Structures are given as C-alpha cells and as structure tokens.
Amino acid sequence: MIAFPRRKPAPTASRTDTPLPQRRVRFDWSDTPLEWIPGQPFASHFINEINLLLPAGEFWFCRVYSQALPLITDDALRADVQAFMRQEAMHARAHGGAIAEYLNAHGIETESNTRQEDWLFQTLLADAPFGRALPAPLQRRWLVFRLGIIAAVEHMTCVLGRYALHNTAWDEAGADPTLLDLLRWHGAEEIEHRNVAFDLYRHLGGGYISRYYLACIAMPTIFGLWAHGAAHIMRQDPRFADRRPSALRPWIWLEWQRQSRGGHLPSLPWLMRRELSFFRPDYDPRDEASTEEALAYLERSPAARDAA
After folding, report:
1. Which is nearest to 197 in space by CA: 72, 109, 101?
2. What is the mean pLDDT of residues 4-33?
C-alpha cells in the first residue's frame, strides 16, 4: 500500500483568533452633560461629533459586506465578516441613540450634518453611484474599491480605539462615565475585530498599490468630516460665536492641536504617525493594538457587562 504524504491544510484567510460576539449594549444618557469633559467645551464637542459621523458609515459597512459575503471562499473569514457586521450594526445603533437621547435632548441640531453623511454613503458610495447602475464588469471592482476604503477606515478606528483605552486625561478631568464607556466599549471592539476588514480586502483581490491610494482618499476625508461636524456643533454654542467655527478656517485645526497638549484630544501629528503603518507593504493589523487589552476593558465595561 502506497503511503501518500499528507497535505498541509490550506492557510485560512482569517487572522482573527478570538470570537467576535455582539454585545447588545444600552446607554442611559439622562445625566450626561453636553460638556462631558468639565471645563473642556472644545474637546467635548469635538468628540461628540463622532456620534454624528459614525452611524451612516457603519450601516454602509454592513451593506457593502453583505454583497461581499457570497464571494468569500474561506469559512473562517466568512464567520468573521458576519460577526463584524453584527458588531458594526450595534455600534451604529449605540451612536444613533446618543444623537437622539443625548445631543438632540440638549438642543443640538444634528439633521443637517447627518444628512451630509447619508448623501456620502447612500449616493456617492452606493452600489449605483449617483443612481447610475455600473456595468457588470465594473461591479466587482467597485466592491473591492469600497472594501479598501473600509479597511483604511478600520485602521483609523483601531488607532482611535487604542487612544480611548489608554487616555487617562479624561478620567483625571472627571469626564462623564457614560460617554467614556461608549467610547471605550466601541474602541475595544474596533481593536477586537481589527483584522477583519483588511483580511477581507486582501481575500477578494485588494493589493498594495490600490491600498495606498485608497488610504490617501479615506484618511484626509475622515479628518475633514470630523472637523466639519465638530464645527457644526460648536456653531450652536455661544461661547464659540466669535470664532465662526469651520473646517475651512485655520482656527479649528490650530485649536485641535492646542487642545491635544492637555491630553483631551489626540494630536494631529500623533494620529498621522499612527496612520502611516497602513502604508507599509508588510502592514499587519495585529501589530496595531492588543486584543488582550481590549478584552480586559470589555470585561469591566458597564454597558458590556449589562448586555452580558
């Protein structure tokens, strides 16, 4: 009887080695002040903009990934993507709740800002951009293009998640515990699933050159949208009336950097340095943060404990 050598199993496309549960969190916003970092209205408004920026994008992630699912040939990666979608949908609902129950309850007008986010994801980056159906040969390319955008954005959210877990300046300032928990729960889950978007992008044919230019599109766009939305909130605060906040005026960018020296915001140079790793040919999301650190926070997060 001839003994044939055993074939090694094909390596999986997934590099996620922990489960990705959906934690059905809820937050009670009844006692959270608009200036949730005491004495820091600029930083409070700047971080509050995250609630306006994220829901439309995260629901868009889920729509794009639902199209990618039938194309995935790796069972482990398919399971990762499905779990990723459940976590992202929960993130969108949690931040959507913060818009309605927290920002709107404090009299902040948000619809004009969220309408712009909806246009970006439902019109410009839709399956049929501007309502025009793409020819069949271009549909897969358009899908992979958007998967590359998501991979770049997920690198950014991993960086911000790490910042949220490490930043003690908020605690020292007496920041509101509910909003802190929202940021850290979300940030910890971004670290937990940080491999998925990049693994999927590569699995469906995304390469280094396209990753480079897609990051050059995505990263400045996110920074611009963040500053634009923060300015929208600040314009509703009489304390900033004389500054006429706008993403097109130097003041908001200079003030962002000045405020970062107190530790209440990540500095732009620090963010840019952390984002640069995505451009390395040997980029590996596993090097960007610690899963163990993220899981340790999720074990003690009030919202995640209540969900469990």
Report:
1. 72
2. 82
